[in-house]
Structures are given as structure tokens and as C-alpha cells.
Amino acid sequence: MADASTNRGAGEGKILLPPLMAPGQSFESVTETIGSIVLLPRQPKSWIVGALIAFSLLMLFFVAVSWLLIRGVGIWGINIPVAWGFAIVNFVWWIGIGHAGTFISAILLLLHQKWRTSINRLTEAMTLFAVACAGMFPLLHLGRPFVFYWLIPYPDTMGLWPQFRSPLVWDVFAVSTYFTVSLIFWYTGLVPDLATLRDRAPTRTKQVIFGILAMGWRGSAAHWQNHQSAYLLLAGLAAPLVLSVHSVVSFDFSVAMVPGWHSTIFPPYFVAGAIYSGFAMVLNIVIPIRKLYGLESLITKRHLNNMAVVMLATGMMVTYGYVMEAFMAWYSGDVFEKAMMMNRAFGPYGWIFWGLMFLNVIVPQALWSKRLRNNTISLFFIALSVNVGMWVERFVIVVTSLSRDFTTSAFRMYYPTVWDWATLFGSMGLFLTLLFLFVRFLPMIDISETRKLVEESQ
Amino acid sequence: MNGAPPVYGLMAEFSKSETLLAAARLAYASGYRQMDAFTPFPVEGLAENLGRKKSLVPLIVLLAGIGGGAGGYFMEWYAMSLDYPINIGGRPLSSWPPFVPITFELTILAAALAAVIAMFALNRLPQPHHPVFNVPRFERASTDKFFLCIEADDPKFDLAATRQFLETLKPDHVEEVEP
User: Fold this and answer.
1) Chain A residues whose beta carbon lies within 8 Å of the beta carbon of residue B127
2) Following DSSP, what letter does each residue of B93-126 receive, concatenated?
């Protein structure tokens, strides 16, 4: 029983791996375990405490954004030459976090990695919320956010078009496509589970709401046939999309000629970093949730271990990126590139660079140890280190390069203000509030796919 | 059938997917065509056993993807070289490399939207009500039971004979579905 439910996609023969779910699960038991979280009114106390903290941070976000709309971007620490500041750091960070969700739900689906089943729904939701947070920052960073729609090509009376050769316009298309595709992918997967909740709803109100959301899904053979076809195609479409989005984000930097940005390694290095931070965020979310909701039988140690291994692998790629950046700065012989690298490591922001090396390169080496990977507490803190580290990485890229580019007389330091921090932590409030609502009101594990896994293990 | 209440069809309930798969094959072999099966998760081979044709979704997605990509490229080319040309140092107006990212994104966007719209349209969803929901036991179809429903508009359908046929498939229950 145990080895039947393990992953047979990797290699020939029977590889004995820990099971993907605790033994003795049935269709009814998995449906009950996952569905009851949504259908029963009682929530763990920690949900209420957590949701309250998240909601307070969301209020902070509203205050910060309102003040921004009243006073303009001058309330932030940005200046000339450091015109990008926290807004772009946060944008790149959030959008990177989203990547793990699509990676898990699309790429691992196409690779027949069955272990994705118990975490894909949650990580897709995480993607959506992270991209929602990310999408806000470039808009808020516009001097006049109320004319953001000028970025969209539409037949306007001014006779203007967006500049389609600009990476910033590519970004608009990449991020909005990414959000839309993630949303429909998530919803398509959700429809059969909404039908389950409709059929099991204890009250009429819940029945009606889930009924509307399920759109009359009956689980007929015809339904499933089209559904599976569409779902696989969406996965196939999302897989190149997830690689393209952070590549396009990296073009924002690498198409510019600023030292430290103008580099061909940026697209793969950004994508690896995105998946790295995304898996770290998944671990930071999943570890508390499986504990609080007693989902250890479905989200097993094997899942955590696999995610830790992906994190270690992408972490090594990111490390390679750091090494190559330094090497190419020296190898190019370009005086500005060399000065940029020296400034990055030993200039006024040098301590942040070394902090980045500690958080992103040194701490994750602990993942080589099986004991530390299997300990949820140490894994949680390693993932937290990566999350902070990846934020710091974007800070180093954005700020150190901009603050000292070509002309010495234009050098200027950047210091974040209290409003910069308020927007950053506020956006975390938005993310966490959405996540808490999701966990409460929608099934956080794909029930129908889990049933299929039960069937295969019997 | 005069005098008998009109029915939508007859529904047999199974507790294993293999039994349903075999039942669907037998029903098709016995000449039934207007039927559908209901399962709590996708069962491989079920649609084939019921004699269903391949899904049309992939074709629609392909066409939408081509349309999205071509439309996106055309928009960029039209805007940048005809409607709003900007001469930057004499560089070519119709410069395909920088048009690639948006062409790619619009290909994906159109294909993905088409996939989900086609899925719902081909499934005739949203549909607020369907006769199969009249069977009280049917709510198990989204948890752990497998159903086969032979519809009354099948030419071979006969209330008594079809019921007898379904009974031979060893179902847990056979029930009439009210229209």
C-alpha cells in the first residue's frame, strides 16, 4: 500500500519512498478532512489571532496608500538617481514568490509529480495573492496612478500608443497575463471541489453560494473529459508563462545600461531566484497550516522534504548567479562594472550585501542535512531566511546600482522612509488577509485529485 | 409507456470505478448511446467506454492561441510602424525582436481564456439545474459513488428492460430519474 502511493514517475522499478498520504485514507475521509475546514463554523483560535494581525497590517497598507495618493511618491525615500526604491524591490519580490505556485501546479503536473496534489491548490492561491500584491507596486509607483490605463493599448482620443519596444510595457502584458492565467487555472481546478462542497453543505446559504460558484458541475464523464483536457492545456500554457514572467521582469533591468543590470544572465538568474523564494514562501505558509488544521496525513514530511530539495537546488543556481555576476564584472574589464561590484560588496551598502550572502547562500546550505530538512521548525526558519534574503537581493540589485552609476557627481544614497516600510509590511497584510480568507472559505487541498490518489493507492 | 410517469432516465449506482468502467462498456456494447456517467474524480477511459468522441478543447485552444499571437503581433506592427511611427536614430520601425514578448503573452492569454471558456461552453455550464440532481443519492457523486445514467431519449430505452439490464451490471442501487 505504501509503495503504491509513492511516486513512480521517477525512474524504473519500485523506489521505496515515504507515502504521499497517511495509510487508511478513503474517498470519504479525505473529503471530510478537507471539506469540513470550510463547511464547519468553528475555526482554530490561531486563525482568529492570525487573521486579526493580517487585517491590522492591511489597514496599515490602506493608510500608507491613501497618504501616497494624497501626497505623491515624495513620501517615499526615492530620489534621483535612485528613482526605483522599495516599490520596485517589493514588486520583484512579490512576483517572484508567485512563481512557485505555478511551478508546482503546472510544471510538476506535466512531469507527473504526484506529490504536488496536496499542495497545488494552496500554492496557486498564494500565487494569485502574491501577484495581486506585486501588481500594485508599479501602479503606486507611477507619479499619476489614476492614469495607469494609459499603459494598456486602447483606441484613445489622444491618438497615442504605448511604446511596445519598452520592457516596462512588456511587464504590463506579462503580469496581467500571468494573473489572469493563474486565476482561471485555479478556478478550473476548483470547480469540481466547489460541487463537492455544494453537495455537502450543511446550510442552505452555503449550498446556494457554492452552487453558484460550481456552475452546475455534475462530474459527468463529458464534463471530466473537457475539464481534464482544458486543465492539462492550461498547465502546458502556464509552464512557459512562468518562465517568461520573471524573464520579462529581469528585462526591466537588463535592457537598461546601468552597471550591474546590463547582463545576459539576468533572465535565468531571476527565474531561479523566483522559484527559490516561492518555495520558501510555500514552506512558510504550509508548515503552520498543516499543523493548525491537522493536515499532516495529507501534507506529509515527504512534501516538505521535496520542497526543501527544490529550494536547495534553486538556491545553488542563484548562488551561481551571484558568483557569475562578480566574475563577469572582473572578466569584462569594464571599469564601471568593476566599480559597481566593489561598491556593492564594500561600499556604503556593503553590509546589506554580506547579509544577503549569509541569508541566501550560507543559511540554506543547512538543507544538505536530512535531519534539518525533516525538522519542521528548522525548515521554517531556513525558508524564512531565504524569503528575507531574496527581498534583500532585490534591494541590492535596485539600490546599489542606481545610487552609483556613471557620473560621480550624480551619486546619491537612498534611505527608506517610514512610508516605505509601511507599504512593504502593509502589502504583507494584504497577502496574509487574502490567504486567511482563502483557507477559511475555500478547500485548500484539491479534493478530487486527492481522491484520485486514494484510488491509485488501493 | 402510456400512463407511466415520464422519466429522464434510469440511474445505476456503483461503489467502484472499475465496476462503472465495465458497466459503461457493456451498456455501449448493448447498443445504448444516450447515456452519461458521473464520478467524483476523472476516471481514465470512461469517456471512451461510453463512446464519446475526443474533446474539442485542444483544437479551440490551438486556434485561439494562433489568433492571439497573430493579433498581438499585428497590433504592435500597426501601432509602431503605421499609426504612430517614432524615428529613433533611424532604427527600423518594424523591428520584430522587441515585439516577441507581447506576442508571446497574448498567445498564452488568448489560448488560456479559450481553454476555460471552451471547457464551460462544451459542458453546457453554467446550468442551474439538471434532472440527475433529483436523485437524492446523487449527492454522493461528488464524494465516493459512481453513477451510470441511461437517458429516456435513447432509442433503445425501455423502462422495464433497461432496468433489468442495469440490474445485471451488479449496481448498489438502480433509481428512476425524474425529469
Assistant:
1) 215-216
2) SS-SGGGHHHHHHHHHHHHHHHHHHHHHHHTT--
Say whether residue B63 is in contact with chain A using an 8 A CB cutoff. Answer: no
B101 has a chain A CB within 8 A of its CB: yes
Closest approach of B164 to chain A, Cα-based (Å): 23
CA distances to A127, A176, A409, B35 from A96, rounded to whole Å, are 9, 14, 34, 47
Contacts of A366 (CB under 8 A, 6+ apart): A372, A378, A382
Residue with cell 531565504: A386
Q: Which residues, at least 6 apart from A144, have a Cβ–Cβ distance to it below 8 Å?
A: none
Question: Is A161's CB within 8 Å of B130's CB?
Answer: no
Superfamily grouping for domain A27-189+236-457: Formate dehydrogenase/DMSO reductase domain (1.20.1630.10)
Sort A197 into a burial class: Cβ within 10 Å, 0-12 / 13-18 / 19+: buried
pLDDT value at position B116? 96
- CB contact under 8 Å between A26 and B47, yes or no, is no
Min Cα distance B145 → chain A (Å) is: 9
Instruction: With beta carbons under 8 A apart, name residues in chain B contacting A216.
Output: 125-130
| Average pLDDT score over residue span A363-376 | 94
Nearest of B15, B35, B23 to residue B146 by alpha carbon: B15
Q: Is B15 helix (H, G, I), strand (E, B) or coil?
A: coil
Q: Can you tell me the ipTM of this complex?
A: 0.92
Which pTM was predicted? 0.91
Residue B1: the pLDDT is 46
Rounded Cα gap, residues A251 and A246, in angstroms: 9
Residues of A in contact with B61 (CB under 8 A): 230, 233, 237
**Mutation test of the interface with chain A: which of B61, B104, B113, B123, choosing the one with the most A Cβ atoms within 10 A?**
B123
CB atoms within 10 A of CB A312: 18
A3 pLDDT exceeds 50?
no
A414 pLDDT above the threshold of 50: yes
The H or E element spanning position B12 is strand B9-14
- pLDDT bin (cut points 50, 70, 90) of residue A6 is very low
Closest to A61 in 3D by CA, of A84, A88, A90:
A90
Taking the CA of residue A229 and the nearest CA in chain B, the distance in Å comes to 7
Query: For every one of its 179 residues, what pLDDT tens digit does chain B have, with 9 covering 90 and above?
Result: 455 568 899 999 998 899 999 999 999 998 899 899 999 999 988 999 998 899 999 999 999 999 999 999 999 999 999 999 998 888 899 999 999 999 999 999 999 999 999 999 999 989 888 999 988 888 888 888 999 999 988 888 888 899 999 998 889 988 888 88
- Contact list in B for residue A217 (CB cut-off 8 A) is 125
- Ranges of each domain in chain B: 9-54+129-177, 57-122
pLDDT band at residue A14, thresholds of 50, 70 and 90? very low
A128, A140 contact by CB (below 8 A): no
Measured between beta carbons, the chain B residues lying within 8 angstroms of A27 are 40, 143-144
- Please tell me the distance from the alpha carbon of residue A353 to that of residue A144, in angstroms, as a whole number: 33
